[in-house]
Structure formats: C-alpha cells, structure tokens
Specification:
By secondary structure, the protein is mostly helical. The chain is built from one helix and no strands.
Length: 57
Amino acid sequence: MLDFSQFSGLVLFMFIFTAGFWLLIFLLTFVVPYWIGGTLWENFKLKQEAKKAAEGK
C-alpha cells in the first residue's frame, strides 16, 4: 500500500504525463496543420499577386 507522499507523487506524475500527452495530441492535430495550411495559403496569395503585377507591367 502507498503512503501519502508516494500517492501524491504518483498523482503528480500522472497529471504531468497526461497533460503533456494531451498537449502533444492537440499540437499535432490542430496547431501544426493550421500553421502549414496558413503558410501554403499565404505563399499562394503572394504568387498570385506577383503574377498580376508581372502581367500589369
């Protein structure tokens, strides 16, 4: 059986471990694709503007 200090250490470890796990899942499923998609979209818009500027000259 665990005494209180061992139990509290286990609970703290599990909280930190699960918080890190869910943060990693959040980053990989929402933040990184949003970042990559935004970068691609901005590059696409810049290329379109450069093409329009080249046609206008």
